[in-house]
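**User:** My hope is that you can spare some time for a protein that puzzles me. As I understand it, each token names a local backbone shape. I would be glad if you read both lines and explained how they fit together. The protein I mean follows directly.
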Amino acid sequence: MNAGSSSVSLDKAERGKKGGGKLGSVLSRIDPFVPRTDHNPRELRSWAKRTGFVSTSFSGDRGTSANEKNGSAGFDLEQSLGNRGGGSSPKIEIDPVLGRTRPNRRFEIEPASGSENGGRRIENDGVLGSRDGAVLGENQGRRFGDEHVLEVRNEGRKVDLNGNGKVNDSVNESVNRIGNANGNGVGVAAGNPVTEKRRDDGKTETDMEMNLHPDGEEPAFGEWRGPSGMKCGLRENPGVVPLMYYGLQHYLSLAGSIIFIPLIIVPAMGGTDKDTATVISTMLLVSGVTTILHSYFGTRLPLVQGSSFVYLAPALVIINAREYRNLTEHKFRHIMRELQGAIIVGSIFQSLLGFSGLMTLFLRLINPVVVAPTVAAVGLAFFSYGFPQAGSCVEISIPLILLVLIFTLYLRGISIFGHHLFRIYAVPLSVMIVWTYAFFLTAGGAYDYKGCSPDIPSSNILTDACRKHAYTMKHCRTDVSNAWRTAAWVRVPYLLQWGIPIFHLRTSLIMIVVSLVASVDSVGTYHTTSVLINSKPPTPGIVSRGIALEGFCSILAGFWGTGTGSTTLTENVHTIKITKVASRRAVEIGAFLLIIFSFIGKIGAILASIPLALAAAILCFIWALILALGLSTLQYSQTACFRNITIVGVSLFLGLSIPAYFQQYQPESSLILPSYLLPYAAASNGPVHTGNKQLDFALNAIMSLNMVVTLLVAFILDNTVPGNRQERGVYIWSSREEIRSDPSAVADYSLPRKVSKCLCWAKCLRV
């Protein structure tokens, strides 16, 4: 609205007041609203956009000082819209429709004691309206800003955001919740003056942009629930055939995270190609079973459970223990049973952490500033393994790394038949193309050396010339694996297939600490996923339920013998974003297909024959993606804040440097270990000597793990260094009342009725 029409409205409001006319008579003489045609309502500038801060509602904090209330960093945007229980109004006025601060209009909004609709009474010393806003509607209402009209009626709220007479239903639902949170009112109180400085483009510096999605989607800010841009929503069921397609699409994009861990740990444990194929089949089965369990009884978010890289580094530490280095007979089975026992104990601790309700207390201390460096350290932990392994065959690894980068970055916008194939299937497409290329290199004799055979183990090679090429043949050739010849067509992985688990205190202590890291990782994934699919954030009870079930799923992984625990895959967030599929049913059908594939032994055999250099090359990309996903969690805090920059930087540096100090104590028999496994041998040779060998092993192992040290440093600093809620980016979790008052949110997170009745004793785990 231009300045002329605004002044006319104010003059009419003044005449109506002086003449003693009623509110209705004043409103009836207000000129019709004429929207501006040169304004895009999505182009909103904000402190939240500049800093990356994400919140779920707006309010002032009665307990803060005057400086904090008036300072630029003092806007407490994280609590409810107003003081629901009464009390003083917030001091900073924020437009909930535009998402920007408004200048002081010098009127107060107070609860109207006799109002039939529980609305707000507006006092302005007899003056109704202001420079930018006026009251509209049959009973009450307010126009927010120059372009947007909010009308409030008895029968419901209707919002016209564009001035064209069309109603945005999704925004109406959000405005209803905003009104209900403030006593069915629509006002936000004004307080101290906030100066609006005009820039050359006509916009104000105090405008607050709430477009939190870089792809231009509607903001899922707090109580708002705009379109999420998903092809398939959380509870949508487009049919069996589309669900099967979406499910396969979801798991193909996660193929690298699910199947490549056995290619690392089984050879390090002394296992054969047949053992590798069996472990891969077991991982497919456990991933399918645990994903279905989590979808029905966990948080019920569309998250895939699988063998996480969080457990890979501690597994390598246990594998490279001194007493296992000289084992020759049944080495693989013995180490696998040791891993099984440690995973079971650590998972029991994680499950108890969730079922007991202690996780709800722990959540108060976990913030994005803690989660971000911890998850990033999971990816950084394998820098000594990634390219040193991939570099053994650069003619395969470098083309693969380049190809996956070209697909994900340069060709991500290309659509074929309406599908962004290069973005969604970047990993499987790259692997298939380079694998075929490696097959032609092998068939063409690129790795044939005179008098050398790839079928002879390197330990049996006598000539120096062949010994020099044994490493290259093992990592580059596509025909060195005999898994296809030895694997059965049909094999069902069963519990305790490797034998009875072995329990030791030293390995159990390691996995207990690692289970805490896995829980912190999952907490960040839960929150990010709920925001991504435009759902209410889960309650602390729902988060505890998810952590408890993850612990139970890891117990199953321990009994089945996957070599690692089962937890929520961090890469799942990226998969949901690029595939635009958040359907719970699609994830369940994909998990069911994984279970079927696990029974076909030849599938595991094919995957086990992937050259090690190729697997290491694709893992370089996956670990880099985990690093980036971890750091992206900082968007929920003030990323430019010196406090956060320092905490994250110090945490990451010490998380790499302190383990490097422990890893410099090389094993006495270092020649029997490859160079890329030496960092994981510190547990037996570290500097800690307490006199108790079990405790020495555990402490040296824990302090040599990058993610554990990073979590410890970030956790202590973030919870001891002073900082307000915006700086820390405190995760906003929904309350039970908010979930129960929202039917869609209840359907998102509530358990099946029979299961809910069984958990009637555990109030901390229910919606």
Q: What stands out?
A: The first helix runs from residue 3 to 18. The beta strands are 94-95, 100-101, 108-111, 120-123, 140-142, 149-152, 157-160, 305-307, 566-568. The chain has 34 helices and nine strands.
